[in-house]
Amino acid sequence: DELALLDQTMQKFQAELAKPDASAQHAGSLDLRYHRLLARFSHNSIVENIYNFVIELFTKTINPIHVGVAEVHQRLHQAIMDRDADKAVEAVREHTAIWISGYQAAHNVG
């Protein structure tokens, strides 16, 4: 049931990103929902609390409509669905690099 809900949420996120007039606000909401589900489905309250705290810190800087975001999210999701920890970690690292470059570009940093 948990994997099905994650999959459904990812499909909605990808569908929004695929639209020519994709809404950054709606895509961002779906992105946060997906990540909050990941935290909840860890079944570890400490991990969930830390994850949600960190996500909340970065919420204002997240731009899901950025080059590479859809692809890296899909790779992360597939790794989770396949239960492939190595590929999941690789996707998270790539996701973080995309976030950093997007943040730097938006704030003329780096």
Description:
The protein has one domain. With 110 residues, the protein is mainly alpha-helical. It is globular and about 40 Å long. It is built from five helices and no strands.
Layout of SSEs?
Blueprint: H1 2-18, H2 24-40, H3 45-58, H4 69-82, H5 85-106
Helix pairs in contact: 1-2, 1-4, 2-3, 4-5
Structure at a glance:
The chain is 76% helix and 0% strand.
Characteristics:
mainly alpha; 76% helix; globular
Class derived from helix and strand content? mainly alpha
On the 0 to 100 scale, the average pLDDT is: 89
Secondary-structure element order, as H and E? HHHHH
Poorly predicted residue ranges: none
Q: State the distance separating the first and last CA atoms.
A: 42 Å
How much beta, percentage-wise? under 5%
Shape: globular
Largest sheet, strands/sense/barrel: none
